[in-house]
Amino acid sequence: MKNYKELIDNYEVAVYPKRDLVIVKGKEATVWDDEDYEYIDCVAGIGVATIGHSNPAVVKAITEQAETLITNACVFYNDTRALLLEKLNQITPPNLKRSFLTNSGTEAMEAALKFARISTGKTDFITAMKGFHGRTMGSLSGTFKPEIRKDFEPLVPGFSFVPYNNLEKMEAAITERTAGIILELIQGEGGINIASQEYLEGVRALCDKHDILMIIDEIQTGFCRTGKMFAIEHFGIEPDIMTVAKGIAGGFPVGAAICSDKVNVPFGKHGTTFGGNPLASAAGLAAIDFMLDNDLAEEARKKGDYFVSKLNVDELSKVREVRHKGLMIGIELKEKVQPYLQQLMEEGVLAMPAGKIVLRMLPPAVITYEQLDKVAEVLNRILK
Ligand SMILES: Cc1ncc(COP(=O)(O)O)c(C=O)c1O
Questions:
Q1: Cα 154 to the center of its chain, rounded Å
Q2: How far lies 89's CA from each of 98, 182, 292, 321, 373, in Å?
Q3: What are the tens digits of pLDDT across the range 255-301?
Q4: Measuring from atom 8 of ligand 1, which residue has the nearest CA?
Q5: Contact predicate 347/39, CB 8 Å
């Protein structure tokens, strides 16, 4: 057998430190390594496999589509893309009408930035401290963390950062050049920080008052993760652009910038070769239908609440706070999280960090209650 670790260590641009595990197979919320050990997967491709690994509906859709048509440029109409666009229109807030389909979250953010500039004729963006929006030059410019920005400066000019959930600071940062305000509703990478209702209503009002586009990044929170199809539904607010990716297509790489009528992009000002290709569209359609047919949003809500209720928080001396909405779960520790991730892995549970001290879990919404019990039991033991 080939030594996969060695091959990756030798031939991959090593941008990620690795866990000592070769994952080769997945089904629902379980993954297997190359020695056939199984793990409960609360990483799920970093919040991607919400409908479960190798979901049969997506496998069938991809297989059938692959036999029919894999690629098609967006200069032609296409049946599968048409149906995915219609589906996105049906499940997103009513004012969001048109989507630009991409292959990743960061590309959706890049589209949102360009669309906001060209639609408003303005140049600048305000975004939140601890916010994360991607790693390409535009989205990185709106990402807070200095360690991942500083080696790539100069970045795109015109971005400013304000404290999250602080409306006064947001208002003070607005200028006549502000094209967009970009926010996550729950900061994922930043530590599972949840926006308040008053804050978001205030931001919406500021955007209306100053002719600014409200750009909501649902790349991590979207597609049932937080107990609603989109986290924006918790707040009853309509954004002007919503970016999505991750959970949209069961693991197939798909993203979108979904836009209201305030967005106008003339022909030729943006484009993509792969975005909206038939294979990706078929995967997205099948995945979204699975979410709707199985009410996965409600599953995520119930299972998130159940899981947190199983944690004996008062007895966990290593824990400062547990924050969650649905199955977007952050356990803030009083110390570094890394050793606990290793311990969890040894106990057959995969989880990840959000910053240095928050243990983040984004399990599939098809995870079983038995699996949640097992994860809670391990955490109750190791975080005591
Ligand atoms: C909130 C948020 N925005 C943007 C991104 C970037 O998405 P991608 O990694 O698909 O480019 C991520 C990825 O983790 C994210 O969590």
A1: 26
A2: 7, 21, 14, 37, 37
A3: 999 999 999 999 999 999 999 999 999 999 999 999 999 999 999 99
A4: 105
A5: no
Q: Which helix (H) or strand (E) holds 282?
A: helix 278-293
Residues framing ligand 1 (Cβ under 6 A): 46, 104-106, 109, 132-134, 184, 188-189, 217, 219-220, 245
| Residue 115 phi, psi (nearest 5) | -65, -40
132: CA distance to ligand 1 center in Å?
A: 7
Residues 176, 303: Cα–Cα separation, whole Å: 45
Question: pLDDT value at position 317?
Answer: 96
Mutate to test the pocket of ligand 1, among 246, 272, 352, 358 (most ligand atoms within 8 A of CB): 246
Residue of 133, 194, 218 with the most ligand 1 atoms within 8 Å of its CB, for mutation: 133
Determine the distance separating the centroid of ligand 1 and the alpha carbon of 2, expressed in angstroms.
32
> How far is Cα of residue 170 from the mean position of the Cα atoms in its chain?
23
Q: What pLDDT is attached to residue 1? A: 82
Transcribe 18-77 into DSSP letters.
Answer: --S--EEEEEBTEEEETT--EEEESSHHHHT-TT-BT-HHHHHHHHHHHHH-S---TTS-
pLDDT (tens digit per residue) in 45-100: 999 999 999 999 999 999 999 999 999 999 999 999 999 999 999 999 999 999 99
Q: Hey, how many other C-beta atoms are within 10 angstroms of the C-beta on 21? A: 15
